[in-house]
């Protein structure tokens, strides 16, 4: 329905999307190549690991790196430390009244370990770990959560194949889910 | 009358104790105008400040949050120094001269932009509310917070200025396979979210200014995303990268975090819209009514699904409701001010507000939400009705889950 003024003059379309019409679209972006921005192109598509780089790391290497770079905040064996809570356990807790959210219990896809550790950890020096170190830390945390054996090696092929227990734990947004009624008198 | 603890208000009766004297400020010169200065609030307003939560103690303050003092905010605009904060690795100080934004992935031509480039495009300014999905997470089933700053202060109202995201996306040329867009920050968390392209092309902004000045560092300087009506963290701050793809990425920030517990051990994912909500900001928790008689009950209402159509206020714990007055302007996905006159007779009362938005959605109670969700652990998307109790002394208390 077209909006009209009080005396019937059509007001036409208006609103938040109105952008001034221009004779020519301004184009100020500078062309850049994918190789120029490779250092920024760090995202991993979690379900299949698209974007995982070459490299590899073992559980044992991961423990060594963890003890140097992570333990101070996350504690020994990732059981919680001076700054953050546990990163192990919680698998099977979601159907109880006390859900324990850890990477092991919560991540639906194992490549999230690589993506998140590389972009954000260690908190005081993010985006400084090598691919090998990041694979090794992923392997170590997966092992502590009982999801890969002690001799596991993670790389761009093996990491996406790790089966995570919360793989099917998500449902898409189905709101609005409340059907409140606008009662005005004697409502309770 | 209960106890007579508070005086009757409004009666012009007894003579005042002393005649009004001439103030010292009227018999002296004030401060001169500085040659150049950024103005600050009165020294008598120093209690009006952002505060971290006093309920949930983080053991570090880099991945943390601070909250807007809504009890002290008139109108619908939050001053920039009071806009709430939520960071995942602290606030970076980014030099706009060296900062670059790139668009790449499933586009015809990857592009990079300087800040000067971005500011040359046709500009768009829009008022929107901004709310963290975690607003209210400490107060679901029983009161934990005292003030409305602590219960609802992960909420601010801002006039954002920037470029329509669609302007930049169309210049890069979106591949027909492109259905999802990654936004990534240049901060130490490189915070990242996947957003459906329909929303990006609809009303998403790439923003460089707020409330008439450059973005504040803690709110994304020099450039950020603003996704109107959606949970705050998708509006990535310190924006450095936009990537187009055919699927969502399922980052940690959209699986292990920013998902909502549901029955049978499930989690609701990509719950983006901040649903219709309201709260009474005056009187609110921690305050005390000083006099019986007239009070203007004031509050804020907002909806990520559209405009506010109506707000009802109850003074008896939700049995009876009266429609409040909405103050213009009433804008899309924006804080809306409501107010209603009330004569407090000195007895106990339970005040609550209930908003209705332009889709007809009625703000629910906690009990309404519990019918479909699991209220367990770190629960987000709390848009339930907030009750405040007032006792015979006029003391106002948080009564979530109690009334």
Number of strands of chain B: 25
CATH superfamily of the largest domain in chain B: Oxidoreductase, molybdopterin-binding domain
Task: Considering residues with a beta carbon less than 8 A from a beta carbon on another chain, report the largest interface and each chain's count.
Answer: A-B, 68 and 86 residues
- How many β strands of chain A by DSSP? 4
CATH architecture of the largest domain in chain B: Alpha-Beta Complex
Structural class label of chain B: mainly beta
What can be said about the biggest beta sheet of chain B? 5 strands, mixed
Please state the average pLDDT score of chain A.
Answer: 91
Backbone shape of chain A: flat
Low-confidence stretches of chain A: none
What does this 3D model show about the protein?
The complex is a heterodimer of chains A (188) and B (403). Chain A is mainly alpha-helical. Chain A has a domain at 56-161: Orthogonal Bundle (Cytochrome Bc1 Complex, Chain D, domain 2). Helix content of chain A is 23%, strand content 6%. A two-stranded antiparallel sheet of chain A has the order 2-3. Chain A is flat and about 70 Å long. The two termini of chain B are 23 Å apart. Mean pLDDT of chain B is 95; it is low at 1-5. In chain B, strand 9 (180-185) and strand 10 (192-196) form a beta hairpin. Chain B has two domains: 86-268, Oxidoreductase, molybdopterin-binding domain (Sulfite Oxidase, Chain A, domain 2, Alpha-Beta Complex); 277-398, Sandwich (Immunoglobulin-like), CATH 2.60.40.650. In chain B, strands 1, 17, 18, 21 and 22 form a five-stranded mixed β-sheet that branches. Chain B is mainly beta and 403 residues long. At the A-B interface, strand 1, helix 4 and strand 4 of A face strand 5, strand 6, helix 1, helix 3 and strand 14 of B.
Descriptive terms for the model:
A: 188 residues; mainly alpha; Cytochrome Bc1 Complex, Chain D, domain 2; two-stranded antiparallel sheet; 5 helices; B: mainly beta; Sulfite Oxidase, Chain A, domain 2; Immunoglobulin-like; 2 domains; globular
